[in-house]
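Lab manual, section 2.4: Encoding a predicted structure.

Procedure: take the sequence of the chain (107 residues), apply the prediction step described in section 2.3, and record the output as structure tokens. A sample record is shown.
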Amino acid sequence: QNVRCQGLSDGEFCLMLCDGQDGVETIDWITRQSWSNAEVVMVGNSVSSFTQYMVAPESPEGLRALTLGVASASIYDVVMPGGSIRELDIQTWAIPISQRTGGRSWA
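Recorded output:
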């Protein structure tokens, strides 16, 4: 699943803050469809792997597996190594995303 306002998704961008509940709602929708066997496997690389990290603790009914690609065992270690956010991430990732989303808030 794309995060809000990324890829073909709409809504207000709120990276990692909304992903858990958004994922639960998506899984719920999928499991209620007539074509669904009500068993969901999430698949994704990079940020989509982080989305899976946000959904898993919510334990949505129907979620059977996560398939993480290009992911770290710890989001914290990637985003805040040593307890401080990496300036390089802000410059090369967060600012460009903010510019693409019209400077909308992450929260």
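Check your result against the sample. Helices lie at 19-31, 47-55, 75-79, 87-100.
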